[in-house]
Amino acid sequence: MIHPARLLERLGVTEGHHVADIGCGSLGHFVFPSAKRVGADGRVYAVDIQRRALDVIRRAAKEEQLFNIETIWGDADRIGGIRLNEGSVDVALITNTLSSSRRPLDLVKEVARITREHGIALVVDWKLHASAIGPSVEHRVSDTTAQEWFGGGAFELEDSFEAGPYHYALIFRRI
Questions:
Q1: Is the pTM of this model over 0.85?
Q2: What's the CATH number of domain 4-174, 3.40.50.12780, 3.40.50.150, 1.10.10.10, 3.40.630.30?
Protein backbone atom coordinates (compact mmCIF):
# COMPACT_ATOMS: atom_id res chain seq x y z
CA MET A 1 0.00 0.00 0.00
CA ILE A 2 1.28 3.45 -0.96
CA HIS A 3 1.34 6.03 1.86
CA PRO A 4 1.20 9.48 0.21
CA ALA A 5 1.81 11.45 3.43
CA ARG A 6 4.97 9.46 4.18
CA LEU A 7 6.27 9.86 0.64
CA LEU A 8 5.60 13.61 0.65
CA GLU A 9 7.45 13.90 3.94
CA ARG A 10 10.37 11.92 2.54
CA LEU A 11 10.45 14.29 -0.45
CA GLY A 12 10.55 17.30 1.84
CA VAL A 13 7.33 18.84 0.50
CA THR A 14 6.67 21.85 2.71
CA GLU A 15 4.81 25.13 2.98
CA GLY A 16 4.93 27.17 -0.20
CA HIS A 17 5.94 24.41 -2.60
CA HIS A 18 4.28 24.00 -5.99
CA VAL A 19 3.43 20.34 -6.66
CA ALA A 20 2.07 18.76 -9.84
CA ASP A 21 0.32 15.41 -9.58
CA ILE A 22 0.55 14.08 -13.14
CA GLY A 23 -2.28 11.64 -13.84
CA CYS A 24 -3.92 12.40 -10.50
CA GLY A 25 -7.07 10.36 -11.13
CA SER A 26 -10.38 11.02 -9.42
CA LEU A 27 -9.36 9.99 -5.91
CA GLY A 28 -6.55 12.49 -5.48
CA HIS A 29 -4.43 10.19 -3.32
CA PHE A 30 -1.55 12.67 -3.54
CA VAL A 31 -3.51 15.84 -4.36
CA PHE A 32 -5.18 16.31 -0.99
CA PRO A 33 -2.23 15.39 1.27
CA SER A 34 -0.03 17.66 -0.90
CA ALA A 35 -2.47 20.55 -0.57
CA LYS A 36 -2.41 20.25 3.21
CA ARG A 37 1.41 20.17 3.27
CA VAL A 38 2.02 23.16 0.97
CA GLY A 39 -0.51 25.37 2.75
CA ALA A 40 -2.07 28.60 1.56
CA ASP A 41 1.18 29.87 0.04
CA GLY A 42 1.69 26.71 -2.00
CA ARG A 43 -0.10 25.30 -5.00
CA VAL A 44 -1.09 21.82 -6.10
CA TYR A 45 -1.78 21.20 -9.76
CA ALA A 46 -4.02 18.17 -10.25
CA VAL A 47 -3.31 17.14 -13.85
CA ASP A 48 -5.28 14.51 -15.75
CA ILE A 49 -6.49 13.79 -19.26
CA GLN A 50 -9.89 12.65 -17.96
CA ARG A 51 -12.16 15.63 -17.39
CA ARG A 52 -14.49 13.65 -15.13
CA ALA A 53 -11.62 12.87 -12.77
CA LEU A 54 -10.83 16.58 -12.57
CA ASP A 55 -14.50 17.41 -11.88
CA VAL A 56 -14.44 15.01 -8.91
CA ILE A 57 -11.20 16.56 -7.61
CA ARG A 58 -12.59 20.08 -8.02
CA ARG A 59 -15.76 19.24 -6.06
CA ALA A 60 -13.84 17.47 -3.28
CA ALA A 61 -11.38 20.38 -2.98
CA LYS A 62 -14.28 22.80 -2.61
CA GLU A 63 -15.94 20.59 0.02
CA GLU A 64 -12.67 20.34 1.97
CA GLN A 65 -12.06 24.09 1.49
CA LEU A 66 -8.66 23.47 -0.08
CA PHE A 67 -8.34 26.54 -2.29
CA ASN A 68 -4.72 25.87 -3.25
CA ILE A 69 -5.68 23.06 -5.66
CA GLU A 70 -5.91 23.88 -9.35
CA THR A 71 -7.19 21.25 -11.77
CA ILE A 72 -5.55 21.17 -15.18
CA TRP A 73 -6.73 19.14 -18.13
CA GLY A 74 -3.59 18.02 -19.89
CA ASP A 75 -1.94 15.33 -21.93
CA ALA A 76 1.34 14.46 -20.21
CA ASP A 77 2.27 12.20 -23.12
CA ARG A 78 2.75 15.26 -25.32
CA ILE A 79 5.49 17.86 -24.93
CA GLY A 80 3.69 21.07 -24.02
CA GLY A 81 0.58 19.02 -23.19
CA ILE A 82 0.42 20.25 -19.60
CA ARG A 83 -0.52 23.92 -19.43
CA LEU A 84 2.14 24.92 -16.94
CA ASN A 85 5.13 27.16 -17.52
CA GLU A 86 8.63 25.77 -17.79
CA GLY A 87 10.21 25.26 -14.39
CA SER A 88 6.99 26.07 -12.53
CA VAL A 89 6.87 23.16 -10.06
CA ASP A 90 9.11 22.15 -7.20
CA VAL A 91 7.84 18.57 -7.17
CA ALA A 92 6.31 16.44 -9.92
CA LEU A 93 4.50 13.28 -8.85
CA ILE A 94 4.20 10.50 -11.42
CA THR A 95 2.27 7.76 -9.65
CA ASN A 96 1.02 4.70 -11.56
CA THR A 97 1.30 6.80 -14.71
CA LEU A 98 4.32 5.40 -16.55
CA SER A 99 2.63 2.02 -16.98
CA SER A 100 -0.32 3.64 -18.74
CA SER A 101 1.66 6.13 -20.83
CA ARG A 102 1.36 5.91 -24.62
CA ARG A 103 4.60 7.87 -25.12
CA PRO A 104 6.66 7.56 -21.94
CA LEU A 105 9.75 9.34 -23.30
CA ASP A 106 7.60 12.37 -24.14
CA LEU A 107 6.07 12.16 -20.65
CA VAL A 108 9.60 12.32 -19.18
CA LYS A 109 10.40 15.36 -21.34
CA GLU A 110 7.18 17.07 -20.29
CA VAL A 111 7.89 16.42 -16.61
CA ALA A 112 11.41 17.81 -17.11
CA ARG A 113 9.95 20.88 -18.82
CA ILE A 114 7.65 21.82 -15.92
CA THR A 115 10.05 20.91 -13.08
CA ARG A 116 12.35 23.69 -11.90
CA GLU A 117 16.11 23.23 -11.73
CA HIS A 118 16.98 21.15 -8.63
CA GLY A 119 13.30 20.21 -8.30
CA ILE A 120 12.15 16.65 -7.66
CA ALA A 121 10.31 14.07 -9.72
CA LEU A 122 8.87 11.13 -7.79
CA VAL A 123 8.08 8.07 -9.87
CA VAL A 124 5.97 5.40 -8.22
CA ASP A 125 4.83 2.51 -10.35
CA TRP A 126 3.94 -1.16 -10.32
CA LYS A 127 6.58 -3.81 -9.65
CA LEU A 128 6.95 -6.37 -12.41
CA HIS A 129 5.51 -9.31 -10.50
CA ALA A 130 1.89 -10.33 -11.05
CA SER A 131 -0.58 -9.15 -8.43
CA ALA A 132 -4.30 -9.19 -7.84
CA ILE A 133 -4.43 -5.45 -8.44
CA GLY A 134 -2.91 -3.21 -11.09
CA PRO A 135 -2.25 -3.64 -14.78
CA SER A 136 -1.09 -6.88 -16.34
CA VAL A 137 2.65 -7.53 -16.07
CA GLU A 138 3.13 -6.88 -19.81
CA HIS A 139 1.91 -3.29 -19.30
CA ARG A 140 4.17 -2.52 -16.34
CA VAL A 141 7.41 -0.57 -16.54
CA SER A 142 10.37 -1.91 -14.56
CA ASP A 143 12.23 0.34 -12.16
CA THR A 144 15.34 -0.19 -14.30
CA THR A 145 13.56 1.07 -17.41
CA ALA A 146 12.11 4.03 -15.50
CA GLN A 147 15.63 4.89 -14.29
CA GLU A 148 16.93 4.76 -17.87
CA TRP A 149 14.15 7.02 -19.13
CA PHE A 150 14.41 9.62 -16.36
CA GLY A 151 18.18 9.41 -15.97
CA GLY A 152 18.78 10.04 -19.64
CA GLY A 153 19.65 13.71 -19.36
CA ALA A 154 17.40 16.03 -17.36
CA PHE A 155 17.30 14.12 -14.07
CA GLU A 156 19.67 12.30 -11.71
CA LEU A 157 18.53 9.41 -9.55
CA GLU A 158 18.69 10.39 -5.91
CA ASP A 159 16.99 7.46 -4.18
CA SER A 160 15.11 4.24 -4.86
CA PHE A 161 13.06 2.14 -2.47
CA GLU A 162 9.96 -0.02 -2.14
CA ALA A 163 6.74 1.95 -1.81
CA GLY A 164 4.76 -1.04 -0.58
CA PRO A 165 4.30 -4.64 -1.65
CA TYR A 166 3.23 -3.76 -5.19
CA HIS A 167 5.16 -0.57 -6.00
CA TYR A 168 8.66 0.78 -6.38
CA ALA A 169 9.60 4.44 -5.86
CA LEU A 170 12.32 6.47 -7.53
CA ILE A 171 13.31 10.01 -6.55
CA PHE A 172 14.98 12.06 -9.25
CA ARG A 173 16.56 15.51 -8.98
CA ARG A 174 16.22 17.91 -11.94
CA ILE A 175 19.66 18.99 -13.16
A1: yes
A2: 3.40.50.150
